[in-house]
Amino acid sequence: MQYKQDRVTGLRVAYIGGGSRGWAWGFMTDIALDAGMEGEVRLYDIDRDAAEKNRAIGERISACPQAVAHWRYTVSDSLQSALAGADFVIISILPATFDEMESDVHAPEALGVYQSVGDTVGPGGFMRALRTIPMFEEIALAIRDYAPKAWVINYTNPMSLCVATLYRVFPDIRAFGCCHEVFGTQKLLAAMLADLEGIKNVPRQKINVNVQGINHFTWFSSASYEGGDLFPLYREFCDRYYETGFLKDKDDNWMNNFFACSHRVKFDLFRKYGNIAAAGDRHLAEFMPPWYLKSPETAREWGFSLTPVSWRKQDLKARLARRARLLDGTEAPDFRGSGEEGHLMLGALLGLGDMVTNVNIPNRGQIPNLPEGAIVETNALFRRDAIQPVYAGPMDGNIQALTARHVLNQKNTLQAALTCDRQLALTTFLNDPQLGGVDYSDGERLFDRMIRAQLSWLPEGWKKQYR
Amino acid sequence: MQYKQDRVTGLRVAYIGGGSRGWAWGFMTDIALDAGMEGEVRLYDIDRDAAEKNRAIGERISACPQAVAHWRYTVSDSLQSALAGADFVIISILPATFDEMESDVHAPEALGVYQSVGDTVGPGGFMRALRTIPMFEEIALAIRDYAPKAWVINYTNPMSLCVATLYRVFPDIRAFGCCHEVFGTQKLLAAMLADLEGIKNVPRQKINVNVQGINHFTWFSSASYEGGDLFPLYREFCDRYYETGFLKDKDDNWMNNFFACSHRVKFDLFRKYGNIAAAGDRHLAEFMPPWYLKSPETAREWGFSLTPVSWRKQDLKARLARRARLLDGTEAPDFRGSGEEGHLMLGALLGLGDMVTNVNIPNRGQIPNLPEGAIVETNALFRRDAIQPVYAGPMDGNIQALTARHVLNQKNTLQAALTCDRQLALTTFLNDPQLGGVDYSDGERLFDRMIRAQLSWLPEGWKKQYR
Amino acid sequence: MQYKQDRVTGLRVAYIGGGSRGWAWGFMTDIALDAGMEGEVRLYDIDRDAAEKNRAIGERISACPQAVAHWRYTVSDSLQSALAGADFVIISILPATFDEMESDVHAPEALGVYQSVGDTVGPGGFMRALRTIPMFEEIALAIRDYAPKAWVINYTNPMSLCVATLYRVFPDIRAFGCCHEVFGTQKLLAAMLADLEGIKNVPRQKINVNVQGINHFTWFSSASYEGGDLFPLYREFCDRYYETGFLKDKDDNWMNNFFACSHRVKFDLFRKYGNIAAAGDRHLAEFMPPWYLKSPETAREWGFSLTPVSWRKQDLKARLARRARLLDGTEAPDFRGSGEEGHLMLGALLGLGDMVTNVNIPNRGQIPNLPEGAIVETNALFRRDAIQPVYAGPMDGNIQALTARHVLNQKNTLQAALTCDRQLALTTFLNDPQLGGVDYSDGERLFDRMIRAQLSWLPEGWKKQYR
Amino acid sequence: MQYKQDRVTGLRVAYIGGGSRGWAWGFMTDIALDAGMEGEVRLYDIDRDAAEKNRAIGERISACPQAVAHWRYTVSDSLQSALAGADFVIISILPATFDEMESDVHAPEALGVYQSVGDTVGPGGFMRALRTIPMFEEIALAIRDYAPKAWVINYTNPMSLCVATLYRVFPDIRAFGCCHEVFGTQKLLAAMLADLEGIKNVPRQKINVNVQGINHFTWFSSASYEGGDLFPLYREFCDRYYETGFLKDKDDNWMNNFFACSHRVKFDLFRKYGNIAAAGDRHLAEFMPPWYLKSPETAREWGFSLTPVSWRKQDLKARLARRARLLDGTEAPDFRGSGEEGHLMLGALLGLGDMVTNVNIPNRGQIPNLPEGAIVETNALFRRDAIQPVYAGPMDGNIQALTARHVLNQKNTLQAALTCDRQLALTTFLNDPQLGGVDYSDGERLFDRMIRAQLSWLPEGWKKQYR
């Protein structure tokens, strides 16, 4: 790559999961709108045809008059060829298919365990991790061998475990995980300012927050706007909307489809624990004991709904239809910006401007009362060739306790997945708060059923135990 | 105190809870049989009459022909006078009465939560901690002011939190907690050697173990006898007795009344987690999710029974009767030795001989994957004026996860108790594995009921919240 | 204080050492030029007359047409009245007088030990610390009692030990130390860009650096400008000017009077250790073995000179004359800005805009291979009511070794000063690299002579040992 | 190996440096006198003839009537064949020859730097490390590949760096370093008891000590005998013999040839630092600034002498002559016991009896204020298949500072040796206290001269820099 007058050219970006049916298009327009950098995006996907289609969409975007940067798009035959010499690697894959996710989400319902998302923790998140970790093991080895100095941005869930796998397999990797859930809560606080104080249109970036936690279970230990502490206002906000929930205008960007969420879980967590939980309620509820997810009705009472995988399958069809329209030109690319920060982080790492934002990286003391090395989410300073975590301080009381439980479960999940250790896997699966009231033998039967449902995606070490 | 020819005289021991109906008598005979030291025991108890009775029993023991050391027994008017100038302090109190314990143990049954002991963790252990911590706060302040250099031996439950309170209130205290549960599992391994290998009468001290954990939830990560690894044998032992349980001869020392315990929980934990759980099954079961304690029947199936507080009340009557007999001479003191190690630890700290044994002290890295400062139970080297923990290494997989959960609960319990913080207390109470399947509102009602049941024993900070 | 439209009014700033003959005037003009905040500065000084004179100068500055903020200046009778209710505390004092500093700097010359500054490390810095620490002990206690929530900014040397004392005496203090030495090296890199690349007038803030170290012995482990790594260029720069030294235009701001410094020490340290030492050469040389300070001639060969205390005394006269002119109006205040960042930090802490800059605070892991709690200098994020250190990473090879030696000396100096422990003080004094070749008995004689030279400023604990 | 009735047979011990001219003979008699174990010793040496000769001596010892265990002795052709299947590995080699040691010890005299031993720290120790570390790198790799589970006992100097290399190259190694220097100071305390108190013939094992430090620079932070604190007595002892030194009867065991040492350095260090330095004065003096080693005369004044390498060469001849006598039977093996603990440690690791003694292993928190992972010397508990460090606590004041300096030098020496990094090596060499007053350019010339003196023993990475 070359630097010239605040602009970098000749960048090489490897995009693993480049056949993405949606997320990629937002990224492509984001970088087309960013004058600071230009280069080549190498799309790699096990579904090569999907990658080819995205290449064509990418070229279309590059050719649009709105584009101020003109990126080249290519399709790579192999992980190796995508990675060789890459400056950046983006990982955004769907581990297996929605059929496996169907088991993740719905199989536990037999035990009365309901999940709103099922991709992070709980029985669904656990099973998804078990099949995703070996994929990331392969990716990490390839990065070690072909692009050891590249910056690696992960968007895949389960976020914490994907990033943890990368570091475990290749400790010198320069990887980080990005997620927009925190942004949503910043927007909620902006909406609160409008609702209670009449201060309109505050951009979320102006809501100053100290982020602590792990992905999808992040908390603000402080929040301010223009020097003013937002906690007293948030307490008032919770009181006003505790019963009814709060609904701001729908955000119709498909990437941020929040489904119905009224923040009642968030308000309740504030009352119970004192800090502002900072992710969508559907995610937050899954990290807790089964207080908000006893049944679909309970979820509805708390103002959110469970996302059935059938909906995801339907939604995928809509996205494929949109892809067809983007390809044949009947729909124009959406140049309003995705709201994601990925391209800004790239810019900051290239030295085009410092940036402080939340990110998932190994704990180097930024949260001193979580284990060293665990993948945590806090603010970090992005600078030329460096991501430096900002000291976020110890987590409070039971927020630490709740989080640490998941951190240790993730540690044990990773170990079990890498070694195909069924007993460790099973006891970890059962240590999830969602299963805190489930009997061991019931849990074991569920575990085996869910393993079998995804057995074809698991390594030989699992297959031979389940023959 | 004076040293002369391997013997220390002039020792001053303050005994807080000196009116003890049982434990004290064992200690008195133990020290009467130990030729290495002699001095004065100052009995202090809020029930002064009980202390006076124990003074008389102590004098009787000193006067027995079996006694090789002749201790003086006095009764102190106040904590301060007992402590002033003491070399050692023993704390062995009953926090409140069996009426409060009745609530601890039986109130949660309304929610289907059964407890076998109810004095360590779970709703009962939590409530006991809430009333005990302020008592230990007072004791710690008195030690700081009147006997800051004394070695302080605690026998009171909840052990970990009692010791934690002492260190939190007076960080320079030299306190440690002693418990015989580990001995019981050493004896089980000795019985196993007899049963499977025909090696009879191995003293428990010859069963070499690496101890890791917290009080009543301790584990052996290794165990050996004369150079031989006992793990393979234990696996065989578990297999043989998994279904039936194992019963060795009854140990009839009243101090070690194990009630019926067939070690089936211990065997099951070995299968599930890979290390040897090293406490009585009644204790172990309480640290786990409600797998072994779903109902009194479940407990019986697992080969142990729940200790009703009515039994304790009855047992107390028997001990009071025994006290009367000891006082009027119709029963002679029992000079067979209690099996406790307290007096040996005193000796080691006086420099009369090194000793490696398990003890509860703050974590200084002996278990590197539990938080620094938490009260943990591992082996330590007892030497003249020093207790030096022996590096026990990191805990394995989910054993760490299970233990860390309790460690953080204990941290939060201590904080809540010292500050009378109801919200922190309630969320901590609900974070116990025994309540992992309980709904928040049900839990909250139980919490309030149990607080009220012991309100007269709680500090003003609680009373004013419950008026 | 009140927030209104991005502006804070009603601030209360306590200025300890408010009789300052110079530094205060720069601060007064800086805040007069900052539209974001306004309030009262309470000047406190043991020389009350000097504080009164500065009050008058402050009022003059507030009245100037250039002033956009109009601060009130008052003189406080006591530390307590200055502190009560303060939002910020500034500490900028001269510990004792230039007579004591004369001993600090020149007494060691008898042993061939020459010092260029003598206020940080070495025999002079040590002795200065010994008399300053008790002063900061008193200040810390007063802050604890009268302004426990205030942000405390220290400018006094020895910086690290002054800040360390504040935290040792009052662990909950919110103190930090500011120093402009790092700015000087950023400016040097900007001058390098002009000299080698023809890129003119780059503001120092655009030179991106990762700062590691302790005050006056700070290092850049990376440096960049607009995405470009500056290390290769710096290597070339060192090669070109290694022999001659590099002289940019004189900076004539009195606060940044660098005396003659040609950066040869800095270039040499780069060759020897691989990173960019980031303080003036006069400071850097004092942290090293006596390689650059064998004699005044050696220093001159390395392109810097020793600052005699006689010069400081002369300079003080010039500053007093300037004060007289500022008071009688024959000289106008200098409104060009001091180049210091103090007022910007105040603004950031008030929530008026985030800021990343270097600061001296306790190590919370920002430099993982220096001891936790040591006062280190790294970048930190300044935000509303928070200073969050940015992870700077481990220090390299011998840079760590050299720094750790001073860190441990500072720890022992603090302990010795607080306890008046002569033997600890003496062995610490002798552990300084400047005295690495000095014999113990020679060192002891020097130590005693220097103690006596400042005995009237030391606590009773010292006096009674030297009677 | 097999266990039978408290006895282990079939042990396989690989002895690297098995041609040893002295140390091996003591070990051979020690194990011949130990009834607990028996097996095979495989002697491996680059001087095969020497190994053959020791095989013959070993067989003679086994055949002696005093031998209660009858070990077999074999000579191995290669490191690999010696290691394959070994239960224990002993490493006791001479790195290079006394010619290289001649440079180590005497070359620095040109700069007025005198060394009493020259094998641990200082310029000599540094250079010895540089050539030894690659040898240990090779040994570590062979152990990893051929005997990964073996316990590895190192006796080679520089001890700390040899052990550090083993762990750096093969982190799962089970290695430890043994040294008898601490025993010497225990014996000194026993002699003190005889001298001052008339308590005769106290065995050193009964002198209870808490050991802290690094090899050859170990300290007792406490010492007691039968419950009595020895520190007050040691203070009196120091006072009495401070000027004259203390000489007990000569120990004539050749392995413990102390040369003339009167403990004056030890007494002086006690006065200066407050704890009991616990190694021979010749070693201790080398860790300090050049206070005790300014000249041969200074050393003599402090009551010890410098060991010239010419003496070692002479002594070697004497030992070769003794070897000849042992071989031809004109001298009988010495069955009085070497006083070393190696065989006892083997026994403890085999489960034949617990043992607490000092040992060199990685810091796992046993000294919390030295870096994690550094090779430190403290007490440890030796048990079946485990060495568990005993918490020794933080080091005091400047003892920590002095020690930490060497610890960091060792870290940098290891790194420089493994990477052939001349600049890191040179700056580390110059950071030794012995060179604290030496000018950089003088030091650099000395460094180059000493490198050249041993260049043939260094890896190619060095050779190509010095062609």
Descriptive overview:
Chain A has 467 residues and is α/β, with parallel strands linked by helices. The first copy, chain A, folds into 2 domains: 2-97 and 121-178, 3-Layer(aba) Sandwich (Rossmann fold); 98-120 and 179-307 and 340-461, Alpha-Beta Complex (LDH C-terminal domain-like), CATH 3.90.1820. The first copy, chain A, has helices spanning 23-32, 48-63, 79-83, 98-106, 122-146, 159-169, 181-197, 231-241, 264-273, 281-287, 296-301, 309-328, 342-349, 397-419, 422-430, 440-453, 460-463; strands at 2-4, 7-16, 37-44, 72-75, 88-91, 151-154, 174-177, 208-214, 217-225, 228-229, 276-277, 355-362, 375-383, 386-389. In chain A, strands 1, 2, 3, 4, 5, 6 and 7 form a 7-stranded mixed sheet that branches. In chain A, a hairpin with a 2-residue loop joins strand 13 (375-383) and strand 14. The N and C termini of chain A lie far apart (51 Å). At the A-B interface, helix 14 and helix 15 of A face helix 14 and helix 15 of B.
Topology:
Four copies of one chain form a homotetramer.
Chain A: E1 2-4, E2 7-16, H1 23-32, E3 37-44, H2 48-63, E4 72-75, H3 79-83, E5 88-91, H4 98-106, H5 122-146, E6 151-154, H6 159-169, E7 174-177, H7 181-197, E8 208-214, E9 217-225, E10 228-229, H8 231-241, H9 264-273, E11 276-277, H10 281-287, H11 296-301, H12 309-328, H13 342-349, E12 355-362, E13 375-383, E14 386-389, H14 397-419, H15 422-430, H16 440-453, H17 460-463
Parallel strand pairs in A: 2-3, 2-5, 3-4, 5-6, 6-7
Antiparallel strand pairs in A: 1-2, 8-9, 9-10, 9-11, 12-13, 13-14
